[in-house]
Amino acid sequence: MKLSAEKIRQLILVFLLVLGILGAVWHFLVRGLEVKRTRDEREKESLGAKIAEQKNAIQTEIHNREVAGAYRQFIARCEQQIPSEHVETWFVRKVSSVASHHGLQIVNTAIRPLREGSGVKFQNQPYRLEGFSFDVEGEFNQIGRFLEDLENSIPLVEVDEMGVAAGAGAARHIHKANIRLTMVVPADTR
What we know:
Oligomer: single chain
């Protein structure tokens, strides 16, 4: 069967019309859905990044709270060891106790001014720094162990300087150490 030229033109026109409709449908529906899907994927990635960032922030906050809790416990333990009585009396008793444990003798003790000025206070805190100095006599290695125990038994003390001199004559094995240290004490004690 032979188609007339008019029928062929009509078929071509219908074919082009169907092709145009399919193109329009693809452009407005399929491509629109594809653009929306791409936009949704980008938004999903963005939200995923924000969620990861928030999880990170939460983990950091949890860690910071744990660290803060540990610091609070440490501070509470340290505060238990800060003298609540007259500071110099407490200090002499503590140093004498540690020294006698090591077979040393405390020769003299004194509250000394700090370089920044005696009794420097921490801003907005109920503490201040107090300086002490004392002389101790004994064998060199005893003095070293004494200092180690002293710093470990009073967590808020720091040795600033120390001078050691050997004894003379028969007592050469006996050394005299002058020790200067700084300690955190309550602001309202003297």
